[in-house]
Design a protein that fits this description.
Blueprint: E1 23-25, H1 31-44, E2 54-57, H2 65-77, E3 82-86, H3 125-131, E4 135-137, E5 146-149, E6 154-156, E7 165-168, E8 172-178, E9 181-184, E10 194-199, E11 203-206, E12 209-212, E13 225-229, E14 234-238
Parallel strand pairs: 1-2, 2-3, 4-6, 5-7, 6-8, 7-9, 8-10, 9-11
Antiparallel strand pairs: 10-13, 11-12, 13-14
Length: 242
């Protein structure tokens, strides 16, 4: 007599959370001028938005539905797909628009300590954790690679090739040539800096402020350079090669 075979138990449905870094676009009036700046960035770094989730922050604009449709159409024409919308009135959004998003915060934000603990001495253990937040790469960053490390600094002991990208929540140190894109302070850190031995980037950014190659003083090209923010402007400084 053949024994009935039991089917293997199906695994339960599992739900997992996963975090991705999104780029936030926040148009400012006049919107036509803002699109002009966006087009200039796209010409200098044509693949900048490729594969990136993009959030549209409309808190700086007063729009009606026609304005919003036009804005989304202009972005779609530039191959910038919008994952979600922040700062828009609920009456402007429906099933034909990207969904409303809320509760977002800058990546890497650190919660403020309780007032009751403000006078307490800092324990030694967090200091050890802070040291471990740096990421050191022994190999060069090759074309097409993206290195994303929002928890601290990134140090590249080799070069960053053209078409490669390094994104750090803190500062970026490149011991070789910087020919790709370096984005420091991506977790909302205006004090972050970029250092490299040979300055030939496609784009540099600190705390959301970008400068493409065409916007940078050619006198610094090929030099050992420090990039920093000063009064909301990107500044370049030469430093001595060790």
């Amino acid at each position: 007599m053949t024994q009935p075979t039991s089917e293997p138990a199906r695994p339960p449905i599992r739900f997992r959370g996963r975090s991705f870094m999104a780029t936030v676009l926040a148009p400012i009036p006049p919107v036509a001028d803002w699109f002009g700046d966006l087009d200039a960035l796209n010409r200098r770094a044509p693949n900048f938005f490729a594969g990136r989730p993009v959030i549209l922050d409309l808190s700086g604009l007063r729009l009606n539905r026609e304005d919003l449709d036009g804005l989304l159409a202009e972005l779609a024409a530039r191959n910038i797909p919008i994952l979600g919308i922040e700062g828009a009135a609920a009456s402007l959004l429906d099933s034909r628009t990207p969904p409303a998003l809320s509760g977002g915060r800058p990546a890497g934000e650190i919660a403020a300590p309780d007032e009751s603990a403000a006078d307490a001495p800092a324990p030694a253990e967090p200091q050890a954790r802070e040291t471990a937040r740096s990421l050191i790469l022994d190999a060069p960053v090759r074309s097409g690679q993206t290195v994303l490390h929002l928890e601290g600094d990134v140090t590249v002991l080799g070069a960053v090739a053209s078409g490669a990208e390094v994104i750090a929540g803190g500062s970026i140190h490149v011991y070789g040539a910087l020919r790709g894109r370096a984005i420091a302070g991506a977790a909302g850190n205006p004090a972050a800096r970029i250092w490299c031995r040979r300055f030939e980037p496609e784009l540099v950014a600190i705390d959301g402020l970008y400068r493409a190659a065409d916007d940078l003083d050619p006198a610094f090209r090929g030099q050992a350079v420090e990039v920093r923010l000063l009064e909301d402007a990107i500044k370049l400084n030469l430093f001595e090669r060790g």
